[in-house]
Amino acid sequence: MKRKQSLIFFTVLAILFIVTISTTVSLYTDWLFFNELNYESVFKKIFSTKLILGMISGLLALVFLLVNITFANKASFPPVDLLFEGQTRISFNIEMLGKWVKPLTVIIGIIASFFAGIWGSALWKEVLVFQNRMNTGIGDPIFGKDISFYLFQLPLLGYMKDFASLVIVTAIFIVLFNYFLRGGINLQERNIYIDKKVKMHVGILAGLFIFNTSFGFYLDQFNLLFSSHGVIFGAGYTDIHARLFAIRLLIVLTLLSGILFITGILRGSWKIAFFPLGFTALAYALGLLIYPALLQNLKVAPNELALEQPFIKHHISFTRHGYDLDRIEVRPFDASYNLTMKDIERNNATIKNIRLWDDTPLLRTYSQLQQIRTYYRFQDVDNDRYFINGEYMQVMLSPRELSYEDLPSRSWINEKLVFTHGFGISMGPVSRISREGLPEFIIKDIPPVSSADLEVTRPEIYFGELSSDYVIVKTKVLEFDYPTSDKNVYTSYEGDGGVKLSSLFRKVIFAMNFRTEKILLSSDITSESRILYNRNIIERARKIAPFLLYDPDPYIVVSDDGRLFWFIDAYTVSNKVPYSKPLNKNINYMRNSVKVVVDAYNGSMYFYISDPEDVIIKVYSNIFPGLFVPLSEMSEDLMKHVRYPKGYLRSQATMFSTYHMVDPKIFYNKEDLWEIPSHGDKTIEPYYTIMRLPEEKKEEYILLLPYTPSKRDNLAAWLAGRCDMPNYGKLIVYTFPRDRLVFGPRQIDARIDQDSYISQQLTLWGQRGSQVIRGSLLVIPIESSLLYVQPLYLAAEDKGGLPELRRVILTYEKNVVMEQNLELGLQRLFGGRITPSVIEDVSEAVRASLDELAREALRTYEQLNERQRQGDWAGYGEQLRKMEQILKKMAE
């Protein structure tokens, strides 16, 4: 028996030792990581808060549990005899069981306290924001409490209530287990015998649980402001005039029930103990279930608009605040169709920056033309703007990252010492195409070759979206840099990123952390070697500031000196703004308050505050004084590439489609409900473009998204998010006149499909074994008119087909044209000659178009002869009409 006890003891000790060592190693490597980035104060604040909270919550739980376990262990009970069917008698040796049960329950209590400490340490964020809370100046309309109470105090109070419930229930289970095995609770043939001491002890614990339930009802009155209804989110008429009174009554009733329950248990009176509880349960059913349902159905439902109107106002107001919709400026857009070639030339910058390349086909094209080697990968395509050769230009660019899954030989040396980084980027203008229908490049190849005044001088990408967990640089093994036609070029890391493996101790620590002995045993690692870890940029940022929500689509930027930087948009979010409708279950408040910039070579990281008015980021700035810096401290060349995030604008646009209606009656009847239109089977995504906004003097980089009325296809408005300084972050909605039809994307799509020439061409290309890819339909505001642009790509049917941009469809007013490029389409729509400032190399493009039409005419002529030989006069007439259309096009 003693041998078994010793074995159990040493097993538990070994497990504790392993857990302790593993935790210590993880903490030490995290400390080195924070220290590397000069954010050790952030680590200290989080770690010390976790440690203190863990100790306090664990100690409170331990004291409470041990007091109850000690009381239970001191109780003594007579021998236990279990009698079954009046004949079978089973006797238990209580003293023998007590020798096992008493220490066992103590051990269970200690283990439960340990987990309570872990649970408490996880509340570090809630405690820190509670300590550093500040008022917003906005009070809720029901209780008059500042919104900061709901953002920074209510969550912690809820967790405290849950913690108390958990500890009390744990104590009840432990003492019941103790009493049952030691005879305090005895199963008889037809009943259960419970000792008086057990009743008193468990009764007091149950009374404490009832007191805690009363505190829960106190919190529930505030949680009414987050209740969900058919019309609004938040407390409605029934909540305020029925449920709120019932909850306040239940606060008092449960408090009294707890006192009477304990009194009844001590006196041995079941009536005193349970009658108040029954009355409270009845009050709960009547006050929170039956009466509110009757009030809602008999009074509110027949008069819903009149009774709910003030609450609808609260709902609209606080939802607009939750998503920062109040700062959206609404302007009229008097759409007209008087666009001329002079207007086109005056908006030259807009025309040149109409995006003809969609992300998906361009990513396939980049991957086939610029991937160079199979172990490189373009993860996605980013959209940005640069001054290139003095011209403000919108570009598409993609970083060439290293794909570890595609390495030719996946040995530890290759993955961790040799293949350490990606290399360079590919960049091209959004609207230019070669004669073959392929994108033009501003920056391409390995090493990067630039055709403009923008160059990449530090192309190595050690930190990115595809980066592995760790690599070791500055070793005796040279790193693979890039391939050439006849050899591989090697390099050695020259930066100061990562942590030095300067001692045997550090090697041991990192070997344990990454669970590999190779770090410790490798002879290629020297005292100057550095280990780069947490290399995925989003995980890297999340490690430093885990309380922010990060955009899943970071983008890469080339600085003026040719270095590569990652931009990550970060958000402060909450689900505790009263009356604000949740976008999903976890968010009803959202701000794009932080721009994170990560050096792709060194891994250095900076957190810039982009929304200084956000109260949550103000609180976090107080908690971590050295973490955030103002956006004004960002270097000027990087500041030019700050952009309004797509995901954030999509969220705001989704909410604004409903909450632009501020009149409660209009909102209730959904008279002016908008929606984001669909193109094909997908909802249109916001898209970046360079254009001159109405009433503005120059072009700027904006994020644009159109609206249509709900269940209708015409346009209702378009939303513009401004990206350039000093207007960054301003949102404008341009509304169309209601008495005029402005075509929406579906209507334009239908008109394109109805065009006989375009339809025939699409069918013909499809019959030739080509995959026709219809690109995004873009709505481009120019002056007071709208131009619709859709690119067409052709690719081979197989997966390896290279998408080529072969046609551009343009729609203006009632005219639909399809041409080889944007400039020729504009020429057909607006007539006249295109000036050299608008189109480059027009004559070659026109000749190419005529050549294509001539080839098409020849094919049609051959079809004419074939139909004549077959006697197919209906087919002959169809081909004759097609020939007529082709000849008319050639004559234009």
Provide a concise account of the structure shown.
The protein has 892 residues and is α+β, with helices and mostly antiparallel strands. It contains 25 helices and 36 strands. The strands form eleven sheets. Strands 5, 25, 28, 29, 30 and 31 form a six-stranded mixed β-sheet that branches.
Largest sheet descriptor:
6 strands, mixed
Q: DSSP helix count?
A: 25
Point out poorly predicted stretches. 833-848
- What Rg do the Cα atoms give? 36 Å
The number of strands is: 36
Structural class: alpha+beta
Report the sheet-strand fraction: 15-25%
Dominant shape? globular
The helical percent reads 40-55%
What is the typical, i.e. mean, pLDDT? 89
First-to-last CA distance: 104 Å
Structural features:
892 residues, alpha+beta, 6-stranded mixed sheet, 36 strands, globular
Structure overview:
The chain starts with a helix and ends with a helix. By secondary structure, the protein is an alpha+beta fold. Strands 5, 25, 28, 29, 30 and 31 form a six-stranded mixed β-sheet that branches. It is 47% helix and 20% strand. Helix 2 (40-74) packs parallel to helix 5 (147-182), helix 5 (147-182) packs antiparallel against helix 6 (196-223) and helix 6 (196-223) packs antiparallel against helix 7 (237-267). It has 25 helices and 36 strands. Strand 23 (605-609), helix 17 (615-623) and strand 24 (628-630) form a beta-alpha-beta unit.
